[in-house]
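Final report, closing paragraph on structural work. Over the funding period we assembled a curated collection of sequence-structure pairs, and we close with a single example.
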Amino acid sequence: MPSRQVTRNDVDWYRTQFGTGIANCGPALVSMSILWARGLDVPVQEIRSEIGYPYDDGATSFDDLSESLERHRVTYRSPVLSGPQDLVNILDRGHLALVLIQSGGIGKVSGDPSTNLVGRYYDDDLGHYILVKGYSLDRGYFVVYDPYPVDWESNSMRYADDISPIGKNRYYPARELFGALKTKMILEVSSD
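Its predicted structure, as stored:
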C-alpha cells in the first residue's frame, strides 16, 4: 500500500515489549524513540527500570514517558489532537506520534497477519501505547509500530521474511485509530 513514512534507514529502531516484563508498551515506545531520534540503543528493560512501577498493574503515564524522553534528551511536545489530520501534520513534519489507544477499537486482521498488514493481530482489548510513523497516501490508514508480542511464550510469528516481528509496519484504519484513542493528548517526538 503506497504510504508516506517517517523512518531511519541506518538502524532498525522497532522494539517489542516481548520478554521485557509486564506492561512495557510505553517503555518500548520510549526505547524506539531514543533509537530513532538519537541513534542510541537503550533497552526496553532499562527504560522500565528508570520509570519503575508507578501503578500496580504496571501501567505508565504520559508523564512517565515524557520524563524518560527528557532524561535521554529526546525532543518532544504534548499536543492535543482534534482530528486525524493532526496526526498527518505531525508525520509531514517528519515527527513521530506516541499514542494511547484502547486496542480493541482497532479491528482484528482478516486472515493471516503475516501476510495481511491491516488490523490488530492479537486478541487483547486493553489500554496500549503504539507509535504512529506514517500514513497511506489515500489517508485511510496509519502506519504503526505496535510493540505487542503476538504471543507471550515465544513471540514467534514473523512476516514472510522470517525476521521482521509482526508488530512492525502495521496498517490501522485511520478512523478506527482515532476513535480508539483513550486520550487525544499525545507525545510528538522529533529528532531535533
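Residues 18 and 119 are 19 Å apart (CA to CA). The domain at 13-189 is CATH 3.90.70.10 (Cathepsin B; Chain A). We thank the funder for supporting this effort.
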